[in-house]
Specification:
The chain is built from 15 helices and 27 strands. By secondary structure, it is of the alpha/beta class. The N terminus is likely disordered. Helix 2 crosses helix 3 and helix 8 crosses helix 9. The strands form seven sheets. Strands 7-6-5-3-4-8-9-19 form an eight-stranded mixed sheet, with helices on both faces. Strands 12-13-14-15-16 form a five-stranded mixed sheet, sandwiched between helices.
């Protein structure tokens, strides 16, 4: 444990045993086998998930997975290695499809549900998918893509699990969907019809194929170009085991605790941290189709929460709500954040709220890459350093490299590289070759280069500096936006800020700062606010890091993963 800027976080001792000690070995099993092994250890007779306020038992969940596996094999004729696309927001149907497909050795192609039709067509074609599952309300907009590609479709009605186990079999798709599929009915079925027709049926699954590709993740790629990332079952299981090594075993609470899956499951962070880790560790899974702070808090009040995993903007929205503080927080033991930088001032505010409401949780910033399972570096409650993103998880290792891929010594800034058990198999390539996107060093170790800059200190903590593409270079000097944003975080008149590369009238590079004013800020004092920002930066940072252009905007733009969309701000003239 280390202090930074005078802030000393609460300390918890290293546990003698963690949840990892209660999980099976990863071995060569696939995700379904691993999940069943976890179920054998903890049992079936407790709630596995909740939808629209209704709990459903783990035994029902397993039965529905088996029914779908039987459908995929005996009606669709899917074989091991066949890709199948899941085009939906977070819901339990996603996980039933995932486990069923994984059981029979198929590859799940997770597709962002906000993709426009042309982009959906592109990914379905590129991945050579054998079919697609989507919400019934998507049919009017997207069924044409399936028709054009002649793909079978499964339509899901979100209300199916809002009723009991018997009634759900008779929930039908909505009228707009029925109209949209006219003329294509022979290739379309509903989620509930499959459950009804295959109720009680099962099929043998593949065994010990953990090295095979389990999922396709459609990500941005470390080059900035859209790429399809291949992750194996073994990599996903390794992430779950790494996460389990970070938490205590609460045997007296396990079956009464829950976790809300607000992170999207079409991203590795959401799939592993919010979904697989929840089911494998025996917590109740509560999916949210779209994050909403007030709905999240309401769910926390009704379901004791063991852990929150999210991105910084999600935690910001929770903390901003007057309803966040309360007795419900005392059940919370862990809070992990990834995907973006967590300013020290915000970290302290969050942890103080936890302490004031009887919670042991402290916000633990981490760092990861979809290409390496998304959970790679984490602050632990017993080993934390504010201002860093933590230390490497047990199965992985991190290093920092120069432009020639030579490892750099402690304290020197370079590009972050990740290696280890959760590494991807590579990007999906049309010719089928593996390893694209990976670098093998002289010792035979495979690495993925992240496109992020940082350094490792003498205690093994990783300090994140900036996206390589976000790095601002002025007169040969490297300016790291996070240094500016973190410095300004405590200013009471600011809600948040974002520093990007800009240019003056003579096309000379400068730091351009976008600010969002606090709700109670006085716009008439804008010149005073700008002067204070300039003065603070001039006092604490290099002359190159002082913003020369400060602009007020209503909100910092975000990507679909709620990360700061600095590229959009960089494009502003």
């Amino acid at each position: 444990m280390t202090e930074a800027n005078g802030y000393k976080p609460p300390f918890r001792p290293i546990p003698e045993k963690t949840a990892k000690d209660f999980l099976p070995e990863v071995g060569e099993c696939n995700c379904y086998e691993y999940f069943r092994a976890c179920t054998d250890r903890i049992g079936k007779d407790y709630p596995a998930f909740q939808t629209m306020g209704r709990d459903h038992m783990r035994s029902e969940f397993l039965k529905d997975i088996d029914a779908f596996a039987d459908y995929y094999v005996n009606e669709m004729g899917l074989k091991p290695g066949d890709p199948y696309s899941v085009f939906m927001p977070n819901n339990i149907e996603c996980m039933i499809a995932f486990f069923a497909l994984n059981k029979i050795g198929c590859i799940v192609n997770f597709v962002h549900p906000l993709f426009p039709p042309e982009l959906l067509k592109e990914t379905l074609t590129y991945t050579k998918t054998k079919g697609v599952m989507m919400l019934d309300k998507y049919a009017p907009k997207y069924i044409g893509v399936a028709k054009e590609l002649d793909l079978p479709v499964i339509l899901c009605c979100p209300a199916a699990y809002a009723v009991d186990e018997t009634k759900k079999l008779f929930i039908d798709i909505d009228d707009d969907a029925k109209k949209a599929i006219e003329g294509y009915e022979s290739k379309v079925t509903s989620f509930t019809k499959i459950l009804k027709d295959h109720d009680g049926k099962s099929v043998d699954g593949v065994k010990n194929n953990g090295e095979d590709t389990a999922v396709y993740m459609n990500g941005g790629g470390t080059t900035g170009q859209s790429r399809t990332i291949m992750l194996s079952s073994k990599a996903l299981n390794t992430v779950v085991t790494n996460m389990a090594a970070q938490t205590y075993p609460h045997s007296d609470r396990t079956f009464q605790s829950s976790k809300i899956a607000a992170l999207p499951m079409f991203h590795a962070f959401g799939l592993c941290a919010a979904a697989l880790g929840t089911f494998d560790n025996g917590l109740k899974f509560i999916p949210m189709m779209r994050f909403d702070a007030e709905q999240f808090i309401d769910l926390m009040k009704k379901n004791p929460m063991y852990e929150i995993v999210g991105v910084p903007n999600m935690f910001r929205k929770l903390l901003a709500s007057p309803n966040f503080a309360g007795e419900h927080l005392k059940y919370l033991d862990y809070a992990f954040s990834g995907g973006d930088y967590v300013p020290l001032d915000f970290l302290e505010k969050f942890n103080n709220i936890m302490k004031e409401n009887g919670s042991n949780a402290t916000l633990m910033p981490g760092y990861g890459l979809t290409e390496a399972g998304a959970v790679d570096v984490v602050n632990f409650p017993w080993a934390t350093k504010p201002g860093t993103v933590g230390q490497s998880v047990p199965s992985n290792k991190i290093a920092v490299f120069d432009d020639d891929k030579n490892p750099l010594p402690t304290g020197e800034i370079g590009e972050i590289g990740i290696s280890g058990g959760s590494l991807m198999k590579g990007y999906l390539m049309p010719d089928g070759r593996l390893g694209e996107g990976l670098y093998t060093d002289a010792e035979g170790t495979k690495w993925v280069f992240t496109g992020d800059m940082g350094f490792i200190d003498d205690e093994g903590f990783l300090h994140f500096s900036a996206r390589k593409k976000r790095l601002i270079v002025i007169s040969g000097y490297n300016v790291f936006p996070a240094d500016i944003e973190n410095l300004l975080e405590p200013l009471p008149f600011l809600k948040e800020s974002c520093a990007v590369q800009g240019y003056d009238d003579n096309r000379k590079p400068i730091v351009r700062l976008f600010i969002v004013l606090a709700d109670d800020a006085d716009i008439e004092k804008l010149d005073e606010y700008k002067a204070e920002i300039t003065a603070i930066c001039s006092e604490k940072l290099s002359v190159f890091s002082v913003p020369r252009d400060i602009r007020v905007i209503d909100a910092i733009p975000r990507t679909r993963m709620e990360k700061v969309d600095f590229l959009k701000l960089t494009e502003v003239g």
